[in-house]
C-alpha cells in the first residue's frame, strides 16, 4: 500500500500529475492537479490511495490527509467508485461536502459531478455518522446551490469553482482577472470540476 509520495512534478495534465520520486515517475490522478503545482514548491507531498482492480493498478492523490480520508469514505458508498469520488472532491471542498452530508443537504450534493438524488441519499445514510474528524460540521456554511439568487445563470459552474479556488488561497482580484479570461471558454452546462481545472491552469500559467 502506497500511502504518500514526495517528489517533484515532472508532468501535468488536466486529470493527473506525474510525480518524479527519486527518478521513478508515478502517474497520480488528482481532483485538481493544477492546485498541486500552484503551491509553488519544488518538492510536493501527495497523499495517495492505491487502487487495485483486475485490469489496472491506479494511484489517486490528494494534497491533504483530510481529502485522502474523505475519498476513502466516499468509495465505501454503493454506487460511488474512485472516479466519481474524485469528481466529488474536484466539485466541492472537503469541508463543504462533509457539512452537506451532516446537514442532509441533498440539493448541494446532487450538484456534485456524477451524483443523483438516490446516491446523495445513500451518502447521507452511509456516512453521516462516520465522518468525525473529516472536514466540515453541522455549523459550517455550504455554498448556495447553483441557480439561486446572485449566481450567473449563463455560467453556473463558476460560483462553486470560485469558492473552491478561494479555499486554495487565491484572492478576489486574482479570481476576477482569471474569470475575465475564462468566461468565454466555459459552456452553459459545464461541470464545476471542469471550470475549476481550467481556472487553475490559467492561474498556474500566470
H/E element string? Answer: EEEHEEHHHHHHHH
Unreliable sequence segments:
146-154
Average pLDDT, to the nearest integer?
82
Biggest sheet details: 5 strands, antiparallel
Question: What's the arrangement of strands in the largest beta sheet?
Answer: 3-2-1-4-5
Helix content: 40-55%
**Number of DSSP helical runs:** 9
Oligomer: single chain
Structural class of the secondary elements? alpha+beta
Q: What would the principal axes of the Cα set say about the shape?
A: globular
Task: Give the tags.
globular, alpha+beta, 9 helices, five-stranded antiparallel sheet, single chain
Task: Tell me what the structure shows.
With 206 residues, this protein is α+β, with helices and mostly antiparallel strands. Helices cover 41% and strands 18% of the residues. The chain contains nine helices and five strands. The protein has helices at residues 33-38, 65-74, 82-91, 94-102, 106-109, 117-127, 158-167, 172-182, 192-205; strands spanning 4-12, 16-21, 24-29, 44-53, 56-62. A five-stranded antiparallel beta sheet has the order 3-2-1-4-5. A hairpin with a 3-residue loop joins strand 1 (4-12) and strand 2 (16-21). Helix 3 (82-91) crosses helix 9.
Amino acid at each position: 500500500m502506497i500511502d504518500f509520495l514526495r517528489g517533484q512534478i515532472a508532468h501535468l495534465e488536466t486529470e493527473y500529475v506525474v510525480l518524479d520520486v527519486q527518478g521513478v515517475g508515478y502517474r497520480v490522478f488528482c481532483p485538481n492537479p493544477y492546485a498541486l503545482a500552484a503551491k509553488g514548491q519544488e518538492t510536493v507531498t501527495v497523499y495517495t490511495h492505491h487502487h487495485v482492480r483486475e485490469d489496472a493498478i491506479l494511484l489517486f492523490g490528494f494534497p491533504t490527509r483530510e481529502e485522502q480520508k474523505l475519498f476513502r469514505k466516499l468509495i465505501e458508498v454503493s454506487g460511488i467508485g474512485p472516479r466519481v469520488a474524485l469528481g466529488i472532491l474536484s466539485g466541492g471542498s472537503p469541508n463543504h461536502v462533509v457539512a452537506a452530508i451532516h446537514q442532509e443537504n441533498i440539493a448541494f450534493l446532487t450538484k456534485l459531478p456524477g451524483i443523483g438524488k438516490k446516491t446523495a441519499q445513500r451518502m447521507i445514510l452511509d456516512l453521516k455518522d462516520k465522518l468525525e474528524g473529516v472536514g466540515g460540521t453541522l455549523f459550517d456554511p455550504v455554498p448556495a446551490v447553483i441557480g439561486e439568487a446572485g449566481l450567473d445563470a449563463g455560467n453556473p459552474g463558476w460560483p462553486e469553482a470560485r469558492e473552491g479556488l478561494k479555499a486554495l488561497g487565491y484572492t478576489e482580484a486574482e479570481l476576477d482577472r482569471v474569470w475575465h479570461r475564462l468566461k468565454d471558454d466555459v459552456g452553459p452546462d459545464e461541470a464545476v470540476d471542469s471550470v475549476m481545472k481550467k481556472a487553475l491552469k490559467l492561474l498556474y500559467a500566470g
